């Protein structure tokens, strides 16, 4: 494809869906979190003659970053019009789709893994799917399909009779009719033949080998994209545009621009510069280019750990532990090592351990080169700007660990993988030679406050102490005293973070104590045996669950009840051919509507200023309550629902008005320009306790009762009383919430295409 008008603000996902009409790649979260938009990117390196395949989120990939690459979507893998691929077939026949919206992304993650590893291990398969979410299936049938490609048995244990632990029908249905438990027949599957896969386009290969590298310029409607090829050119660009961010994987700048209102008129893409992709072993450590992807760093560290003695690789091991759970595979494949550092975000899992390990940053600006310790950036605890706007992070030097030096990294998140940390930490201790006396100690925490923070006073105080329980008690007390967390006393979130901070150091204490015992069992007691499980890392394993069904021996072949019949749309889910609302072809004269919602929980609307929004490109109108005929409400239950807020808003997110424009991008940009003035009203009800106080309840009140409750309480032996607080849970719908309205031009009728599971209610409303 030759695109002469590449817009730096256009992501690959929008280009595929709107420009090329390839709608198999789905728009889910739009921020790289769900995997519904996964595609395979292939690149060719002319020097090594190697082709690299990797999965990526199309929603975060600017099309300008894909010059010279090959993109494979689910349509390119297989279709019902040509032939379906074994991945697509097995996902469908193993019942791996229900609503099917996540299925194309699942297909692409598995397909990419198989292109690199035709017989993957179960660990590789789980890692490949860690960045893909499914709301329907519970993952078991998806993993059933994956297991058919794995080279080793996924059976956890065999029973004494030698049968697989999953062959449990005899135990499950004693004295009942024989029940088959096989949900699919693997004999029906077509074999995977790696020789039949798509080749890398020869034209792109020739282009990479024959065309000299040149600086790329792409100018869009609002943004200019510049991709230099040398470090000197990059330094000149940064001097000319000091506020321009460097974009490699777009996993940081992209979401900031898309969701947080950030705008950058110039974007600089340095990924093609050799100096920023360096890999160099030195006498005292390993130097890695700032543009290296996190996946590449992970592979390099894995190889180094296998090659060097354990004593030298403790920093590498701690880093690798964090990299395994940092984002999904799609994010790690494009996110850069340097970007994770330079963002200085509190949620970085790498910065605490890199800072604690005395890693060095190699910086460059026009006419100057210098080195600083990464820990210097966080020296004052508020992300000190020791890097000037004109400076570039060229590479990172990771030192080898020394004799008597121990390094660990920790994190706690809402889920183990693909989730931002609540709190993380990096810790390092160096002992006086042959002793347990602390010579040097570093403790860094992330997630606790606005940026990575060092417990500097604690480390100074503990230097010279013996590594024992007295030191542990004092360390926990000092850490909590030194690092002040924002929030009020008694705040559950603050208390939880404090507990995590102390727990991380306790775990570090146990790890180091056990290592000292291993080094010299005569002098160091180690830890009690009952604490041993604390040091065992949690490992994600292939789930070993089964689904069973009952079928009568004399059941008619035409009777589907109770039988594991493949989803009628399963194949089309897996090929991306199933059509959802957002996949429908554009209608002539189609306009897009973007809602402007309330940012206040309870307030009076003083004014709505739409003047700036109406000046935006492509905007047709701004609709408010005054433009809605009749009652401006609809009835879903007994109480009416307001369409557009009039005079007052009663919750955050209530629709106040809507912008109509010629594209969804223009509509959203203009919606951000609408200015609403509020006057706060009381009461503001944000918690259940406040709702109880103000007697604010949804009617009718619901309760679960069975039998005579009062009598039951009078006769029971024991009554347990207490309070339990349950937080909210987002449903995380995968399919884009969208609707297409097509006026028919007769009797004010229109056709509505709605992404809903309840079309009857939509008709009523």
UniProtKB/TrEMBL annotation:
InterPro entries: 2Fe-2S-bd (IPR002888), 2Fe-2S-bd_dom_sf (IPR036884), 2Fe-2S_ferredoxin-like_sf (IPR036010), 2Fe-2S_ferredoxin-type (IPR001041), 2Fe2S_fd_BS (IPR006058), Ald_Oxase/Xan_DH_a/b (IPR000674), Ald_Oxase/Xan_DH_a/b_sf (IPR036856), Ald_Oxase/xanthine_DH-like (IPR016208). It comes from the Eukaryota. PROSITE patterns: 2FE2S_FER_1, 2FE2S_FER_2, FAD_PCMH. Pfam families: Ald_Xan_dh_C, CO_deh_flav_C, FAD_binding_5, Fer2, Fer2_2, MoCoBD_1. The keyword Oxidoreductase applies. Keywords: 2Fe-2S, FAD, Flavoprotein, Iron, Iron-sulfur, Metal-binding, Molybdenum, Oxidoreductase. Its cofactor is Mo-molybdopterin; [2Fe-2S] cluster; FAD. Residues 1-77 form the 2Fe-2S ferredoxin-type domain. Residues 218-403 form the FAD-binding PCMH-type domain. GO terms for molecular function: 2 iron, 2 sulfur cluster binding; FAD binding; iron ion binding; oxidoreductase activity. Belongs to the xanthine dehydrogenase family. This is AOXA oxidase. It comes from Vidua macroura. The lineage of its organism: Eukaryota, Metazoa, Chordata, Craniata, Vertebrata. The gene is Aox1.
């Amino acid at each position: 494809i030759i695109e002469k008008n590449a817009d730096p603000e256009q992501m690959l996902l929008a280009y595929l869906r709107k420009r090329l009409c390839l709608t198999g790649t789905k728009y889910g979260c739009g921020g790289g979190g769900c995997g519904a938009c996964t595609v395979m990117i292939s690149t060719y390196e002319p020097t090594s003659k190697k082709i690299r395949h990797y999965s990526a989120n199309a929603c975060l990939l600017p099309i300008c970053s894909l010059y010279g690459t090959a993109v494979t979507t689910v349509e390119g893998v297989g279709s019902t019009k040509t032939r379906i691929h074994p991945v697509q077939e097995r996902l469908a026949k193993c019942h791996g789709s229900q609503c099917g919206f996540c299925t194309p992304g699942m297909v692409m993650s598995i397909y990419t893994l198989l292109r690199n590893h035709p017989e993957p291990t179960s660990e590789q398969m789980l890692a490949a799917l860690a960045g893909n979410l499914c709301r329907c299936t519970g993952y078991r049938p998806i993993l059933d399909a994956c297991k058919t490609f794995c080279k080793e048995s996924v059976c956890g244990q065999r029973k004494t009779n030698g049968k697989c632990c999953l062959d449990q029908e005899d135990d499950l249905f004693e004295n009942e009719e024989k029940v088959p438990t096989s949900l699919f027949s693997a004999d029906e599957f077509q074999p995977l033949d790696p020789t039949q896969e798509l080749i890398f386009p020869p034209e792109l290969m020739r282009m990479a080998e024959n065309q000299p590298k040149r600086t790329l310029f792409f100018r869009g409607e609002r943004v200019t994209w510049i991709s230099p090829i040398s470090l000197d050119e990059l330094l000149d660009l940064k001097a000319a545009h000091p506020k321009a961010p460097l974009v490699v994987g777009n996993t940081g700048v992209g979401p900031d621009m898309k969701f947080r209102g950030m705008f950058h008129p110039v974007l600089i893409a340095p990924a093609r510069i050799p100096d920023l992709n360096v890999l160099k072993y030195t006498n005292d450590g390993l130097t890695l280019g700032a543009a290296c992807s996190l996946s590449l760093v992970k592979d390099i560290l894995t190889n180094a750990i296998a090659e060097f003695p354990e004593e030298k690789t403790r920093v590498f091991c701690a880093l690798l532990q964090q990299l395994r759970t940092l984002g999904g595979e799609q994010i790690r494949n494009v996110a850069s090592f340097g970007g994770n550092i330079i963002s200085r975000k509190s949620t970085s899992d790498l910065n605490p351990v890199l800072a604690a390990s005395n890693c060095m940053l190699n910086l460059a600006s026009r006419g100057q080169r210098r080195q600083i310790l990464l820990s210097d950036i966080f020296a004052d605890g508020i992300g000190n700007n020791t890097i000037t706007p004109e400076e570039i992070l060229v590479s990172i030097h990771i030192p080898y660990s020394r004799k008597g030096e121990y390094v660990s990294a920790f994190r706690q998140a809402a889920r183990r993988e693909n989730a931002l940390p609540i709190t993380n930490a990096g810790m390092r201790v160096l002992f006086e030679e042959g002793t347990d006396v602390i010579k040097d100690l570093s403790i860094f925490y992330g997630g606790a406050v606005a940026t990575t923070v060092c417990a500097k006073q604690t480390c100074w105080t503990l230097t010279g102490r013996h590594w024992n329980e007295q030191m542990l008690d004092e360390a926990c007390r000092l850490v909590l005293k030194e690092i002040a967390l924002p929030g009020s006393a008694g705040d559950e979130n603050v208390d939880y973070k404090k507990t995590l901070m102390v727990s991380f150091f306790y775990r570090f204490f146990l790890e180091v104590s056990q290592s000292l015992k291993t080094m010299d069992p005569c002098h160091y007691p180690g830890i009690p045996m009952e604490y041993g499980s604390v040091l065992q890392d949690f490992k994600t394993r292939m789930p070993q669950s089964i689904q069973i069904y009952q079928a009568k021996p004399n059941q008619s072949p035409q009777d589907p009840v109770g039988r594991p019949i493949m989803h009628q749309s399963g194949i089309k889910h897996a090929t991306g051919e199933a059509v959802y609302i957002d996949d429908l072809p554009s209608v002539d004269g189609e306009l897009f509507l973007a809602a402007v919602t309330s940012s206040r929980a309870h307030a009076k609307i003083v004014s709505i200023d739409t003047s700036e929004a109406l000046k935006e490109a492509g905007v047709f109108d701004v609709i408010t309550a005054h433009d809605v005929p009749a009652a401006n409400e609809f009835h879903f239950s007994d109480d009416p629902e307001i369409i557009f807020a009039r005079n007052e808003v009663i919750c955050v997110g209530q629709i106040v008005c809507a912008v109509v424009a010629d594209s969804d991008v223009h509509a959203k940009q203009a919606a951000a320009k609408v200015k609403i003035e509020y006057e706060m009203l009381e009461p503001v009800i944000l918690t259940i306790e406040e709702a109880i106080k103000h007697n604010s309840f949804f009617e009718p009140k619901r309760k679960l009762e069975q039998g005579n409750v009062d009598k039951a309480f009078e006769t029971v032996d024991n009554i347990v009383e207490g309070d339990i607080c349950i937080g909210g849970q987002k449903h995380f719908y995968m399919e884009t919430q969208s609707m297409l309205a097509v006026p028919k031009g007769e009797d004010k009728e229109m056709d509505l295409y709605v992404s809903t599971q309840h079309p009857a209610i939509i008709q009523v409303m």
